[in-house]
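Forwarding these from the shared drive since the link keeps breaking.
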Amino acid sequence: MASISLALDWTPNTNHSGFYAARSRGYYDDAGLDVEFVSPAADDYETTPAKRVARGESTLAIAPSESVISYHTHPEYASLVAVAAVCQRDTSAIATLAESGIDRPRDLDGKTYASYDARFEEDIVRQMIRNDGGDGDVEVVTPPKLGILNTLMDGDADATWVFMPWEGLQAGRAGIDLTGFGLAEYNVPYGYTPTVLAHPDTIAERADALSTFLDASARGYREAADDPDGGARALIEAAAVEFDDEGFVEESQRRIADAYLTAEGEWGVMDRERWDAFVSWLTHEGILTDLDGDSITRGELDVDGLYTTRLLG
């Protein structure tokens, strides 16, 4: 059997339901694939999923669009490529406690933001605040990644970036309401999140195995979209973690299910216009820089090299 390892971007959650459905229902086995999921909890998120792929430690990784862009501007690693979009709709948001009175991004001036320490993250958040009429003047702290939601709920930070169908719901079921600021609402043409990333050498050398994996995964995601309760059950049964509140997983699945597929019922596909809009915005706002902080112009980054859809069935 061909081996595929997928580095997850977080501990198992409903962003991953299609993968777990494909594994638990035998779609990977039927396709001749031995699939392993690598949780960031394995090393307490010391190594990012994208870096695992860049180092050759994982076949694939789940990561946002900006991780792809970052590796296309990194002199020490290969330019990773997005081979599928997990979700078609952005379900992430910059979140604050509803009781804080921070009702819109500009209210974050002078407040504390808990960062995952991603390369472009803080600049995106600051520009979002400016788009709302603020100065983008936030204090950034970098707590342990896997505990970052607790940083917000415990009042040690005023805002952080979350997936609303998971962390947002998790907070709500704990009796803590969050206010979420969607990036598109404040003129940030954000890219796809999450995506599935691969090393260019793997695409060249193992295209058939990757395509087989994506086809089986697409089947899992279509079924999770059509039957959210079944998708939640697959995640609960197949994930190597114990969920204390299965009702939470089921509700999360219902909230995210419509984000998996296009209107035509396709999973994984990506649109050049969306990639181009995000890259153009990053360069226009001066956010896209090299590791020395020097600006990268729009013409220096080939949008077509950031992603491929040719592995999708």
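-- next protein --
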Amino acid sequence: MRGRVGALLELGIGFHPELTGRENVYLNGAVLGMRRAELRKKFDEIVEFSGNDRFIDTPVKRYSSGMQMRLAFAVAAHLDPDILLVDEVLAVGDVAFQEKCLNKVNEVASTGRTVLFVSHNLAAVRTLCTRTLVVDSGRIRHCGPTAEAIDVYLQSLKPATDGGQDALAGHHRYGSGSVRTVSAEAAPGDRASAYLRSEACAEFRIRYRARERRTIEHLNAGIVVVDCLGANVFSTGTAMVGRNFRDLPPDGVIVCTVERLPLIPGTYSLHVSLKDEESQADYVYNALSFTVVNAGDTELIEHPDPKWGSVAVAAKWAHSLD
């Protein structure tokens, strides 16, 4: 490493609960390697950034945890380092403060300095980073453009299967196990393509198996579609339309047909839920990863940027003099 290194690894190191916010700014700054003259020069800017100006002369023990974290981040963010190491510390404060933190890190990066940002928040990684490392058990699994790296990371979350009867045996799940999802599949409604098409018909097929190997008197099935950043895009289930299944055989396939898939091109995951009469029988996270493409048969011309969202909305555009 060449140059001054600043690390936002554990906020609040050096804070003393009996000292005021003002005194802790100087104490914390000293621990992080800032000179007193430098702290004095940046003091007003640090306090304004933290949003704690009304309570700067109040003992820190009277602060909420969020106020302490904001003050600590404000001090660390004004180190002006040549290399800034940031490790999972941006989830502090409210949405407005988090945005302020992201802007500050962006500001450091835009001046030509190096930022090493460690996070599982894919939205923040996509916003801040141009190049990303995927690390698995201490080893570099992938190094490249951020979009590529995120795809590699998401694929790594899906356990390898042996292609046996229970293809989802290694997946993260919970439930009583009275009925289990053993596989999930997504396919175009017309089966003419290997990919799902935006705004076209799509089928989600869920193969289930009952533990007791007897007729299932009552079953509520549902799916949740999740985008590449882990946000829920939409969900649907038999309970929503009042059509729960009754007297099903112990083995079978449930088919959910979406007549017009409202997703922009991209990669998505599917969570599957099965409930019996008593409780949650099975809930499988990331049971399936599938790709949606623009096959040229819709009005979508461009490949939208992920920050635009995940839902394709049918809309007409026109010009008016009014």
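The helical segments are 21-31, 36-50, 65-77, 95-110, 122-128, 146-156. Confidence is low (pLDDT under 50) at residues 159-165.

- D.
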